[in-house]
Amino acid sequence: MAEGEAKQAANAVETSPAAQVVEVAASPHLSETGVTTRRMMMDVVVGLAPAIAMAVVVFRWYAVVQMGLCVLSCLAAEALFTWMRGKPIQLGDCSAIVTGVILGLSLPWSAPWYIAVIGSAVAMGLGKAVFGGLGYNIFNPAMVGRAFVMLSFAKALGASAYVVGESSLRVVTQATPLTVAKKVAGDLAAGKVVGADLEVQLSHARELWPLFVGNVNGSLGETSALALLIGGLYLCIRRSASWEIPAGALGSALVFAGLANWLKLTPFTALHHLVGGSLLFGAFFIATDPVTSPVTPKGKFIFGLGVGLLVIVLRVFSGYPEGVMFAVLLMNAAVPLMNQWTIPRPVGGPTPKRS
Amino acid sequence: MGTGAVTSGRGTFHRGIHPPERKHLTEKAPVEVLPTPPEVRIALLQHLGRPCEAAVKARTEVALGDIIGESTGFVCAPVHASVSGVTGRVSVTTLPNGRHVRVVPIKSAEEQPLAGDALLADVLGGEWPTGCKQAKACGTRSMGGFEQYEPKAIAEAAHSAGLVGLGGAAFPTHVKLTRNEQKPIRTLLINGCECEPYLTADYALMVAAPRAVIAGALLGQRATGADEVIVCVEDNKPKAIEALRRAAEGTAVSVRVLKTKYPQGGEKQLTVAVLGKEVPTGGLPLDVGAMVLNVGTAAALARAVTRGKPLTHRIVTVSGRGIKEPKNLLVPIGASYRALIDYCGGMTEDAARVVAGGPMMGFTIGSLDVPVTKGTSGLTVMTRDEVRKAGETTCLRCGRCVDVCPLDLVPTKIALASRAGNVELAERYHITACMECGCCAYVCPASIPLIQLIRLGKVLRQRAEAAKEK
Q1: Cross-chain CB nearest to B446 (options A28, A37, A297)
Q2: Which residue has the higher pLDDT, B129 or B1?
Q3: Does B281 contact A28 at a Cβ distance shorter than 8 Å?
Q4: Domain coverage including residue A129
Q5: Counting Cβ atoms within 10 Å, is residue B450 exposed (0-12), middle (13-18) or buried (19+)?
Q6: Is the pLDDT of residue B135 over 70?
Q7: Predicted TM-score of the model (pTM)
Q8: Claim to verify: residue A86 and residue A190 sit in the same structural domain
């Protein structure tokens, strides 16, 4: 005991209070608390929660499997490609999870397991890694993956893949509303008389309430307009998504769908086009990806207008019943131009030119 | 003269941010006089413009108010002794903005002519003439008897008193008060907004000496020939608004209340909010017929003209979570930051940054022996928790910085172009228009040091310009 005390005494040197260390840094010295990239990403997942819940309610086990596979494959692919690039693996920013959830929700319930895996790998690889990782990609990664599997496995992802003859799930025995609309429009354009059972299907598809709530066939996340609206508004209020994009997209889609309907190019009215198909999903959750959309408010609005217009054009004139995926990818390509064209005028006018 | 016609601003500007105000730490604190420090160091350059020339040799006895440094040009204001004592040898110090300036040290004498309450009364107290009590008798155009002063004489008094802008930019006041025939002033704005968090120096002045502010405003109007003069205050200062309104009764000065938002106190935001006019990029409020003076400058102007006293003391808010006893102090120019911090109980354990000014635009200092200058409005000691930021991640182009920039710029583009050394791209996005207010960096989710990068870009641009000229 005495030895210990002696040691203590020996170590206790008379020191002046340790000089306080302060740091020198650039202003500002305050920042908004709680606002981080990771929180914005997780907000997207939270915003998708109603849609995920509806997907599970309508498609049950299939929804769980697809989303689970996509999320895991995205995480694995991101880790693999980051390792191949020789960079430290940072899955913490949650962007891979977001891509996985969106990709999963955009697939049909019946897509085989390899669709999810390949789609995820392509999304993270061709959609993100080759450009330099998070923040450097030009195209929406989930849509890149989706487009790849759509074009490579057309049968597995075509309109017929959504329907089976018999199933415990009633919805999957019917064609998706947009597919019905496309068939009817096609028949009318070809001058054929619309068949009786197609008429029945059309009248079913025209019922707004199931379209709104989500009791129809379609890709996993697109069916419930209600769930998507709730989640989408949540995102906009939290400013984790820019409201200008859905505003532009939904606005122009309504206008052009109305026009198409008036010209008898589509049997669906503007409102049907709004709540049927994945327009709401695309407008609130896909087009709003900040990396692949413009940075100025004007640019975002114009981007939204373009997405809305292209969705209707593709729905009406292309071979596909749905157009969101390609509409977003096409507008992504125009983003650098939109950024250039919408450089805002500074308060006080542009910098005076040096004489 | 009606004030309705010219003031067509909406009472605010667009975009901007709402950082936590944290003024409760010193709001209720009346101004306390800092006990005379053992030494003051008067910097010979305390403003934008040319440095002063030392007017006294070393080891000379000087009295409070004596000229220590003489002006050497038009854009230059003299400096005076803020204590009575003996001068020392001229040395050099580094100011918070990084400039190395020469300083004249003065060792304070045991006995000071003015100290404590007497000093407070001399600087802030007493009667301040603001003119007729009855509007009817004098008419609403009453200048309160200030017609007796010639405009040129007012500007000269400002010069001999060594007045510079006390709001922080420290531009020599007499230059602003000198009439410009090509660009006449229609509106004089007296800036009492004080939009930085923590700072309450202007607020304390407005509450303690509102008549001094009004007198200064009227003198400013006389000097510049402005048609109207408006004191601008944010709505988070009800006591100050009340005090100013009472003091301005019967005078030509009106009080305009503005929405509390950062950075409402910036000149460009003031002209938009009050007058609805945009100062041209690269220009001055002069270009839209306006002139902005800080309330502290106005009060100092009143003291200079009506009492013949030079600028030797100013109110400094010592605040922040990192200081043990936050206060509003009346300090002599040249007191060291260490003296202020010690008088306020010292720093707390978790103090991390000592900022000259407020947390949004203030400069951190690396040594506590830096002297207070005329532009020092506050000393904010911030704690580790307050300044902690997540590590920097990639820009997602989310556009939050664009959403808050009060000048409608695209900060991310400017900052990243600067980082890449691309001056041309930074110029295309109007880098010179940036006022470095910090709104963008405040909201960035990726914790990108936007302001630091923009400053870098400005330096790169200046170098490129200089190289081109060669």
Answers
A1: A37
A2: B129
A3: no
A4: 37-157
A5: buried
A6: no
A7: 0.89
A8: no
